[in-house]
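Protein modeling request. Please complete all fields; requests missing the sequence field cannot be processed.
Requester role: graduate student
Desired output: 3D structure, token encoding
Chains: 1
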Amino acid sequence: MQFKVTSSYYDEASKHLVYTATGERDGARYTVSSRVKCLKPPTTPERLHMVVLLALMDQFKRPSPSGRRG
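Delivered output (70 residues):
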């Protein structure tokens, strides 16, 4: 899975990272906007990338509404 975080911000009050990422997976292009709860703020670009990677992996392993796994 290849992706790039196009925008993100961390809301200190709610401890949520709000992000938008674009990329390609299995030949299909995607754009995802979501938020994820963080125990600690992602203070470096590497930590930000890892948080988004884990969130995307979790999202893509869920079955789609059609019942197929993506």
